[in-house]
Amino acid sequence: MRVLVIEDDRETAQFLQKSLKESGHSADLAGDGETGLAMAQSGTYDILVVDRMLPRLDGLTVIKTLRTEGNRTAVLILSALGDVDDRVKGLRAGGDDYLTKPYAYTELLARIEALARRAIPEEQETRYAVGDLVLDRLSHRVTRAGEAIQLQPREYRLLEYLMKNAGQVVTRTMLLENVWDYHFDPQTNVIDVHVSRLRSKIDKGFDKPLLHTVRGAGYMVRDGAV
Question: 152 with 202, same domain?
């Protein structure tokens, strides 16, 4: 899930970005309303987390502008203003949920994930299966032959992307851009290390390997030899 956090408190924004990434999500930051609006207009995000009080352009104006333009991306409003009238104004401006400060990160994450579930179109897959390997995108649960597999957030994102493209070669560049958010090759073995760890978790102890290396091309998840 790709999240845009529009928050002018740098420490809070960086904490949210770090925590969301540790939870297996991608997060971009904007420090003011104008920048946030431009990023929301030009990017493809699943969720917008918008602070109500922002420099240059307040959060409600950002949301109203997006809604006027037809942007239906789900919005979670963050605000120190917690009166009923304030919450009503936020929701009527186009917000989908409203969370008052201070808040617990676990609640914020739960609200983001709830919004994401509502936002997934009916035709979009919420469950990937390759052979007896199953990934449930809503619960973040991965099983093979009915046995639960515990993955780190980055391993989960890697497997999710590979299973989304099951049967197709996924290149290093594709992984860097879609799993690591890098738009360049950092010349490290980060992909190899994570693929190796993932392979040991989903293939070790099973008769049939599902994660394959396609020499000189990339990687592929499929039920059968490459």
Answer: yes
